[in-house]
Structure formats: C-alpha cells, structure tokens
Amino acid sequence: MTKILIPFYSAYGHIHTMAKAVAEGAKDVEGVEVKIVRIPEFDEVQKAMSGQDAYVQAQDAQEDLPVATHDDLKWADGIIWGIPTRYGSMPAQMKQYIDSAGGLWMNGDLEGKVTSTFISSGSIHGGQETTAITTIVPLLHFGLIYVGLPYGENPEQLTTDGIGGSPYAASTVAGPDGSNQPDERDLTMAKRLGKRVASVSKSLRG
Ligand SMILES: Cc1cc2nc3c(=O)[nH]c(=O)nc-3n(C[C@H](O)[C@H](O)[C@H](O)COP(=O)(O)O)c2cc1C
C-alpha cells in the first residue's frame, strides 16, 4: 500500500473540509491508504476563542481525529499539509509540529517522500500564495519532494473570481468574517491535488 498522510490545523473548519476533499482524491488511486491527523490547538488560543460558536463547532467536528505524531510522518510515503494563513504564513501550531520533528530531519527520515500543501486565507490577497511558498522552505530542508497544482490539470485557476487555486497549492478563501465555504472548484482542485500526490508517491515507491 502507498500511504498518504494529511496533517492539518483548522480553527474554523475550512481546512478540515478541504482535507476531506484531498483525502477523497488520494483514495481514487488504487492501493492507497489515507490517514487524516490533526495538529492540536494551543490552550491559550482555545481559551481566547471559546466564546466563538464557529470556532467551537469546528473544533468539536475534529476532536475524534487522531493527533499528529512524528511516527505518522515516518509512516507516510506522501504528506499533504493543511494550513490556514496567519499573517501570510503558516500558524504557530503547525510550525511547532514541524519544528518538533527536528530529529527526523537529522536522521533524514523524510528524504525522498512526496509532499504538498493546501491553504486557506481570509481574503484573496491576504497571503495564500506566500503561505504555500514559505512552507516549501522547511519542507525542502526535510528533503521532501514538492508537488504543485499545474494549470493544465486545473483550468479553474484561470479566473478573476474570488476562489482559491494556484500553481503552488490547492486553496480556498474563507472570507474576511470566515463565512464563505470552500467553492466547488476549490474542492475539485483539492481532490486533484490529493490524487496527484498519491500517484507520484505510488510511482516513486515502485
Ligand atoms: C491570527 C490570525 C491571523 C490571520 N492572518 C491572515 C492573513 O494574513 N491573511 C488572510 O487572508 N487571512 C488571515 N487570517 C484568516 C485565516 O486565514 C482564516 O480564518 C483561515 O484561513 C480559515 O481557515 P480555517 O477555518 O481552517 O481555520 C488570520 C486569522 C487569524 C486568527
């Protein structure tokens, strides 16, 4: 079996929804096993947000998912990271997980595995692309092989509509107040990303 891991952090659920679409696409490839894992919330953020219904509902919806471990990263042949934008780059919750995996970096445990990202931001120009691009930097330090989202397979990107999708990552626009849900086109591109990473992982695994 080719093993695909989807570690995600999601405060309000948009990235969680995208994670399910990515998983669906990966499962379209024969002989692929998919595991979705969540990056845990910081206690202080949980406390600060506990009065927000949208946040509480989104957290409740993911509480049964397993928490991401370092063994999950070792287990996977392909890793697709789900990341909501924070000030144009990844959230500290995700960075903490990545930083805490320094032992895997030292051992070269992730070298040669396949990787990609899917992103969410509040606004169209709020940093979707910078979040994907800046995340590529630590992923390359691990020796991961980054797979993008090419125009040829994703013509939906060629639009002036306020949706996600770029050559760097699948993505979605949550809206300034978080009230948008991922557009059908965002979910379609997320599925294709999952399928692409799974196919490349399977080929490289041999
Ligand atoms: C502290 C903080 C910083 C944020 N920074 C940005 C930003 O730089 N650009 C942007 O477009 N959205 C920003 N947002 C909005 C989030 O990206 C948005 O809530 C998220 O993509 C929704 O995904 P989720 O529902 O999976 O959490 C920020 C939100 C928070 C809480």
From TrEMBL:
InterPro entries recorded: Flavodoxin/NO_synth, Flavoprotein-like_sf, Flavoprotein_WrbA-like, FMN_Rdtase-like_dom
Residues in Flavodoxin-like domain copies: 4-198
One GO CC term, this protein: membrane
A Pfam family hit: FMN_red
GO MF entry, a single one: FMN binding
Region (Disordered): 161-185
Gene3D superfamilies membership: 3.40.50.360
Protein family (similarity comment): Belongs to the WrbA family.
PANTHER family in the record: FLAVODOXIN-RELATED PROTEIN WRBA-RELATED, FLAVOPROTEIN-LIKE PROTEIN YCP4-RELATED
This protein's name: Flavoprotein
